[in-house]
TrEMBL record:
Organism for this UniProt entry: Actinomadura fibrosa
PANTHER family xrefs: ATP/GTP-BINDING PROTEIN-RELATED, GLIDING MOTILITY PROTEIN MGLA
Protein name, entry field: ATP/GTP-binding protein
Pfam families recorded: ATP_bind_1
Keyword list, A-Z: GTP-binding, Hydrolase, Nucleotide-binding
Coiled-coil segments on the chain, per record: none
Region annotation Disordered: where it falls in the sequence: 1-20
C-alpha cells in the first residue's frame, strides 16, 4: 500500500501559482441539482471563473426512451457524470460547484457528491415540475439544506412563486427565487440566496 492520497481538504499551505491562501479563504462545496434539462450545466458554466469541467456527451441512441426529453426536444447533450466550477463570492468565500445529473440512473453518484456539501440549489423548470419531485425528496431525506431556483424559460407560462411552493410542497422557510441560468449575475444572485439561507440556518442553530 502506498501513502494515503491527500485531497482538497488536506492542503497544508499555498503552492506555487496558487492565488488562494487557505488560511484566509473559506472554500465551500455547493451542489446544483434538478431534473433532466433544467439548466444545471448552463448555470455552472455561467458563473464559473474557471473553465467549467463538464462531462457532457451527445445523447446516444442508448438514452432514447430512458431520458425523458418531453419538453426539451432540442436537447442533444446530457451530463454524464457531473459539472464542476468555482466562483469567488468575495475575498473570503469561494464556492466549489458540483452539478449532478438528475437522471435516476445516476443516483448512485449522489452519496459521494453530497459528502461535505453545505447546501444545494434545486433548479426547476415550471413546465416539468414533476422531474423535481424525486430530487427534492432525496434532499429532504438526506437533510441537505436547499433553496429552489425557478429557471425561467421563455415559453414557460409565468407562475407566482407561492403557487410553485405549494405545488412542490415546500416548507415556508425554504427560499424560492427566479433565475436565468444563462446569466452570470442571476446565477450568482441565486448562490448568494443559498449562502444567506445557510448562514441564517447556522445562526438559528447556534442561538438554541
Ligand atoms: N431560455 C433558456 N434556456 C435555458 C436556460 N437554462 C438552460 N437553457 C437551455 O436548456 C437546455 C438544457 O440546459 P442544461 O444546462 O444542459 O440542463 P441540465 O441537464 O440541467 O444540465 C440547454 O439547451 C440550455 O441552453 C434558461 O435560463 N433560459
Ligand atoms: Mg447538464
Amino acid at each position: 500500500m502506498g501513502s494515503p492520497r491527500s485531497d482538497l481538504g488536506e492542503r497544508t499551505g499555498p503552492r506555487a501559482g496558487d492565488e488562494l491562501s487557505p488560511s484566509t479563504v473559506a472554500a465551500v462545496k455547493v451542489v446544483v441539482v434538478g431534473g433532466f434539462g433544467v439548466g444545471k450545466t448552463t448555470l455552472v458554466g455561467a458563473v464559473s471563473e474557471i473553465r467549467p469541467l463538464t462531462t457532457e456527451e451527445t445523447m446516444t441512441q442508448a438514452s432514447v426512451g430512458v431520458d425523458d426529453i418531453a419538453g426539451v426536444e432540442g436537447k442533444t447533450r446530457t451530463t454524464v457524470a457531473m459539472d464542476f466550477g468555482r466562483i469567488s463570492l468575495n475575498d473570503e468565500l469561494v464556492l466549489y460547484l458540483f452539478g449532478t445529473p438528475g437522471q435516476e440512473r445516476f443516483w448512485f453518484l449522489w452519496k459521494g457528491l453530497f459528502e461535505g456539501a453545505l447546501g444545494a440549489v434545486v433548479l426547476i423548470d415550471t413546465r416539468r415540475l414533476e422531474v423535481s419531485f424525486d430530487v427534492l425528496g432525496r434532499l429532504e431525506d438526506r437533510g441537505v439544506p436547499f433553496i429552489v431556483a425557478v429557471n425561467c424559460f421563455p415559453d414557460a407560462p409565468p407562475h407566482p412563486l407561492e403557487a410553485i411552493r405549494e405545488a412542490l410542497d415546500l416548507e415556508p422557510s425554504v427560499p424560492i427565487v427566479e433565475c436565468d441560468a444563462r446569466s452570470r449575475a442571476s446565477s450568482r444572485d441565486t448562490l448568494l440566496v443559498l449562502m444567506r439561507y445557510l448562514y441564517d440556518l447556522t445562526a438559528a442553530t447556534q442561538e438554541r
